[in-house]
Amino acid sequence: MTRIGLDAMGGDFAPQAAVEGAVMALNEIKADSRIVLFGNKEAIIAELEKHQVDQSRFDIVHTSEVIEMGDHPAQAFQKKTDSSITVGFKYLAEGKIDGFASAGSTGAMMVGSVHVIRVIDGVIRPTIATAIPTISKGKVLLLDIGLNVDCKPEVLEQYALIGSIYAESVYGIPSPRVALLNIGEEEAKGNAQSKAAHLLMKESAEKGLYNFVGNVESSYLFTGKICDVAVMDGFVGNTVLKLCEGLYAINRKMGSVNQFWDGMNYESAGGTPVLGINAPVTIGHGKSTPLAIKNMILSTENTILSQLTQKLKHAFKTESSLQ
Amino acid sequence: MTRIGLDAMGGDFAPQAAVEGAVMALNEIKADSRIVLFGNKEAIIAELEKHQVDQSRFDIVHTSEVIEMGDHPAQAFQKKTDSSITVGFKYLAEGKIDGFASAGSTGAMMVGSVHVIRVIDGVIRPTIATAIPTISKGKVLLLDIGLNVDCKPEVLEQYALIGSIYAESVYGIPSPRVALLNIGEEEAKGNAQSKAAHLLMKESAEKGLYNFVGNVESSYLFTGKICDVAVMDGFVGNTVLKLCEGLYAINRKMGSVNQFWDGMNYESAGGTPVLGINAPVTIGHGKSTPLAIKNMILSTENTILSQLTQKLKHAFKTESSLQ
Fold first, then answer.
1. In this structure, which topology does domain A1-120+277-307 adopt according to CATH?
2. pTM for this predicted structure
3. Percent of chain A beyond pLDDT 90?
4. pLDDT value of position A321
5. I need a surface site. Which of A43, A226, B226, B289 has the fewest CB within 10 A?
6. Mean pLDDT value of segment B207-214
7. Burial of residue A152, with CB atoms counted within 10 A of its CB: 0-12 exposed, 13-18 middle, 19 or more buried
8. How do B281-283 and B272-275 pair as beta strands?
9. CATH number of the domain at A124-275, out of 3.30.10.20, 3.40.718.10, 3.40.50.300, 3.90.10.10?
């Protein structure tokens, strides 16, 4: 039995959008998966009734508080002990659910990820990732997309390993091609950080940790020809992501949308996984629609079933033994 | 009389594309402007004859050598004393031409810019810039787009001033809105570099040096609503530029091109100005078409006529007196 936890109170349109997304997901999750909703029981049931769905298909964990967007994440996480996010993380830490997703406070989700679920032994810094579309139908995993800036080269090197394992387990790409985002193809190009990271990745690849294909320039990210995973500092990754979002919005407004650009839609992305921690956690966009919530539930389920956490733990044990 | 120097031997399709571009520009330059072509006289005349143009409308400075893409820029610049680029810079330094443009070796163009024309007193590092389109019809100047990585905050602060003066003189935007590219709107967001640069820009704005409007996230660059100039480290700028190029190429291949996306076409950009040096220098794309060359000539003329160099010199004199 797989238990996927969802914060029913998270997001700008909660609980409506969250509950509706959960109802939509019911038809797509595996037969032995269950969705566990955290939030105000009365409000959740009221929403479920709108959809004429068999309520027994959900587990509901009643919580009386909500961490609001304006709250200080760390303080609220501690003080609002009966908030949907705080209780969700408690359940996740105790193994009562196998993964937790929320479109609520990103800050509070990170507090729970780092302080309750904790970083996997050997991982210097956790990371957040997303996928962008390519014209060859596949996708490219970008990490870090904004959690860590001023990354040490060693941190970027670890992101290569994390990204490789994620792309292999969750996307099912065998021996994913991992590249370092850089401003030139040659090894010696880039800034101090990327030059040093390139050398470290090369070493790790020689040890067989992953399939490092060298640098990728941003112009080639969308071709799908160079890499399946692109590693970058969170400042650059966040800039890349937001640039794509901005151009997607413009294209959409102009009516020039197609399959490629549709792949930029956050709703289909299924939220942002927090990687390098001891359980699957997914963070959704604050403005998540029911469709976005549905996809976030499915991607969280997928991450659970892929045994990503176990694989990451194993890999970092192996990596440390190789040092 | 304005004399615009053009390297007729520069670019993948020289001298054909360069000369054709010069012929196209003839009808658009001012009545008292002249184009001075540097290169093999015989080859240039052979090209001019193809276009049945009055050759007396050009000045031709015969040069016997060409700096090739494979050459080491600094060495070739020194050794090939009769190359079109080396001679072009000599003419520029001596005031025999008022600006110089080439689609040839970027490295050699930078050597000439820094070592022959030299950096304006007070400027820490020169920079290269480009414009991206906005949906509000205007454009946004991005700098630096790849010349300087690991920029000190002081360098970014100067780019704000340089960009402001450029946008005002060359684009004719009064009191241009200058923003710092960052990963959050709030002052305290970003990496160590952007946080420090933000504070410096704020101080300079308080002194009246330019109109600093704070941070801009990459998602808002194309709206035109936030800024006319966006300052960033060369690593980030080059990534932004190449991402735009990659997406432009995809959109074009997919046939979904419109006025906004046309603005991403390097051919209409008119080359990349080198800013912060003692004369107007423009570097074109290696693959420049005649149209790209034509626009590069016009943007170089525009830069000369705007008296950008004089304005930059004046501003850095003033800035140093304010310290």
1. Isopropylmalate Dehydrogenase (3.40.718)
2. 0.95
3. 90
4. 73
5. A43
6. 97
7. middle
8. antiparallel
9. 3.40.718.10
